User: Fold Polyribonucleotide nucleotidyltransferase from Agathobacter rectalis.
Amino acid sequence: MYCLVVSEEEYTSAKEFLRRINMYKSYSMELAGRTLTVDIGRVAAQANGAVFIKYGDTTVLSTATASDKPRDGVDFFPLSVEFEEKMYSVGKIPGGFNKREGKASENAILTDRVIDRPMRPLFPKDYRNDVTLNNLVMSVDPECRPEIVAMIGTALAVHISDIPFDGPCAMTQMGLVDGEFIVNPSQKQWDEGDLQLTVASTKEKVIMIEAGANEIPEDQMIEAIYKCHDINQTVIAFMDQIRDEIGKPKHEYESCAIPEQMFEDIKKIVTPEQMEEAVFTDEKQKREENIRAITEQLEEAFADNEEYLAVLGEAIYQYQKKTVRKMILKDHKRPDGRAINQIRPLAAEVDLIPRVHGSAMFTRGQTQICDVVTLAPLSEIQKIDGLDANITTKRYMHHYNFPAYSVGETKVSRGPGRREIGHGALAEKALVPVLPSIEEFPYTIRAVSETFESNGSTSMASTCASCMSLMAAGVPIKAMVAGISCGLVTGDTDDDFLVLTDIQGLEDFFGDMDFKVTGTHKGITAIQMDIKIHGLTRPIVEEAIARTREARLYIMDEVMSKAIAEPRKEVNEWAPKIEQITIDPSKIGDVVGQKGKTINEIIDRTGVKIDITDDGAVSVCGTDKEMIAKAIDMIKIITTDFEQGQILEGTVVSIKEFGAFIEFAPGKEGMVHISKIAKERINRVEDVLTLGDKVKVVCLGKDKMGRISFSMKDVKED
Assistant:
């Protein structure tokens, strides 16, 4: 037996090393034909919860951390979700001058939102500690998308941590390729398939749905959703196994719930009947005035009670919420007096903004969106530097703006936030399936939705306005698209619920769901579902999808079609005109010329823009059709070998004793011998031609040395 004598410092270090080894656990399961591996205790031991998760070769570090106590004055749950895209994960160095990752990409922000939406409802409603959920993408396998790995890792990191959480939840993605469902598809299958569906579930219910689809029928979409839900149950069982073995006890926290006694004291001053009268009005401004008056009344009544004053705003919010929910669920009475399945008043118009390429406005109650479309040549296409090697450009861009004045507030614009980016992406996703191909319509397209007024579901109004604006701009979309949102109020049991068509802001704030669906007459193009409860039963999902179909068909047939029934046959007069031809790829160098000399000369002479792809597709863009035609003629001359009998028109650019050189297009010249200039004999070329003359010639074929000969005198008069 040997005894090793070490210093106290060495002993402490060794003990810490052994502790980490004992904490390190690895778990695996088979998921959709690939191995999902989770390492716990291997890295990031100081986080409340950390998961080093691998799916195929895609590797993500998911961590969950929480503050010890709430910050002073915080009256909401401060949850932050981060999805960090590291370019080393795909073997790239970031582009630009600063060779390090900068602000989050749009894809990262959208992934943050998809993770946030199912996670947020599962934290206690009275929890106010700061929580950060971070996902560090360290390696990307194109067969295993990092978003799904981060979603699973985040839920598991919180589940095994000491942070209070009513989970777990699990997430599955579903693709559709050649009519077959693909579980957790590869990046290529995801990008090229007809369905991009993400579903999160708890043990009993669906808690989040996000989808983009190529006009998928409603019944097929429901089938896909519940295939995902079934797979989620296997992942949840895996998470529970890990939690049972190494999960930490949940920590105690300071509850921020409003005391029941405070509600009783408030009701003595403002009765439920008075609160009902205050909130049940179809004018948002009137309702806000009523609540301000109630707030002032209660502030005066509780002037000596600092404890009540500190949480009065939250108490009034909860009082409004209980009032609205009770009246909707029990009495089927909505704040603005509508029926449960009734849409607010609708209006649609096009061409309200002069000189832009396309414009439309869609109004639904107190929600109003003006959308403006801009068309540009393909050179204006957006370049993307991200983790997906399959997508490096984006031809259609939808941007959404939400200024403070749209809700009657005073706030300086700081640029688009995560909400604006998310709403723009949803409307973009809704319209992508109906856009024409580049071959059919060789334009870059940008749609901008300006929110003029907001009182619920502006993203769906953006979809409607953008569809009309595209048609007004002359974009030959394949079908009309509309969108609508449904809400939900639930009771004490799963069977006690009411689905509301076209929710306004108040019903969104106080309700349990915002279920947005866009689509055509044929089927669904996008879904986004936000909820505040622990999930939806299948009857709720099916009713919401059915309601949204009924509503969107009404919007398209009775409102949008009356403003503009189909895409205009030509682009707007202010839009650039684009003509496209195809040339032999081997001739691209001839069109471009040395250091771009030839193509720049064509541009200078005609004022057009020219884009050439590697496969020989040439797009000529301009506002003057004659100049576009002239540029195309030049390109055709440059790329076409001269043939005997071909008639050409050119400019005299050089005169010699033996003849004249005629330029037919930039970089393309030919010679007419002095004997071929005129029918009669001439002694000097200058007797007939001067520099700059426009002349017609006919190709005579090749001479003995293989050179092309031209003649002016042999051009037939007709």
